[in-house]
Structures are given as structure tokens and as C-alpha cells.
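Example protein
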Amino acid sequence: MTTVQIPFDTLKMVDRLIEAGVPTAQAKVQTQLLAEVISAEDSSIADRFSSKQDVAQELLSIKLLLEKLDSKIDKSTAEVRIELAGVKSELIRWVVSVGVLQMALIAGLVLKLVH
């Protein structure tokens, strides 16, 4: 992880503390402690977040997974279309067969009524 440095002007803080009436030694110690706290917090913040490279790598792996899923969906769609074509042809066969059978039945009944 790259560490982002927070700009902190220690000399300016020491001067302001001295102007406010804080003894010089105490102002220097307070400034050093605050600089250490800021530095520690800065490094812990950097550890909590992903770097651009990590995010880019994760996005690339997600993109690859989506492409694999898309190709599987395309294959599945083609298989479903083939299956639907088979079902459609079978349905047409049944409808035509029932129609022919129905016409034969009606013709037989008409011939039976005529005689």
C-alpha cells in the first residue's frame, strides 16, 4: 500500500503554542506527539483501503467471470432454441395427425349417416 502523507507544519504549531503561552519544551513535545498520532492514523487509514492496482485487478477478474457467464448463457440459449425447434416440429406433427384423424372420423360419420 502506498502511504499518503498528511501535510503537518510542526514549526508553525510550536510557534502558535509558544505565542499562546505554552513553554517551549512542552510545545515541542505536544507537537511531536501530535505528529506521531497523525502519522500512525495516516498509515492505518492507508491499510484500510484498497490500492488502485487491487481494485483494477479485482475488476478484471469480475470482467473475465462475466464474459465466461455470457458465453455459457449464449450456449444455453442456443441449446434451448434447438430444443424449442424440436418441440415445435413435434407439436405440428401432432396437430396435423389429429386434424387428419378428425377429418377421417367426420368422413366416416357422414358416410354412416348417408347409408
Q: What stands out?
A: The chain has three helices and no strands.
